[in-house]
Design brief:
Blueprint (H helix, E strand, L loop, with lengths): L6 E6 L2 H12 L13 E4 L6 E6 L12 E3 L5 H11 L2 E5 L9 E4 L5 E4 L3 H8 L1
Parallel strand pairs: 1-3, 4-7
Antiparallel strand pairs: 2-3, 5-6, 6-7
Length: 127
């Protein structure tokens, strides 16, 4: 017997607004019953677990122990710029001059996540 991961839960101050941000990041819809003011919301991913946002009273105070790593379909640089335009902030730049590495961003509530190289960028480096 094994367990199946149902969702990735993210505590936050405003579940609906943070879910809207992540919905734009991953290009997937919110659960059809979610609406402004919902204390629990979900971004419905086509494969894998959903992103579940749970409104809690306490603020984020330290670095995440668990975070999402995103592999963009465009270049890493284009995706970083797009995400900054959506309201993310750059936390740490771990990109290297040879194209390796990643960018650490934070969502509007300060939850860190990484943007990796795209599959195309990875393939170009290994050739």
């Amino acid at each position: 017997m094994v367990s199946v991961v149902e969702n990735v839960a993210i505590d936050c101050a405003n579940a609906y607004e943070l879910a809207r941000f992540w919905s734009e990041v991953v290009g997937c819809p919110l659960h059809p019953e979610d609406e402004p003011g919902s204390r629990e919301t979900e971004v419905m991913l086509p494969e894998g677990p959903n992103l579940y946002f749970n409104q809690v009273p306490e603020p984020k105070t330290v670095k995440n122990r668990l975070h999402l790593c995103l592999r963009p379909k465009t270049s890493r640089e284009e995706e970083v710029e797009r995400l900054l335009g959506l309201g993310a902030t750059l936390v740490a730049d771990r990109r290297e001059s040879d194209g390796a590495g990643w960018a650490v961003l934070a969502d509007p509530e300060g939850n860190e996540f990484c943007v990796l190289r795209s599959e195309g960028e990875r393939a170009a480096m290994s050739s």
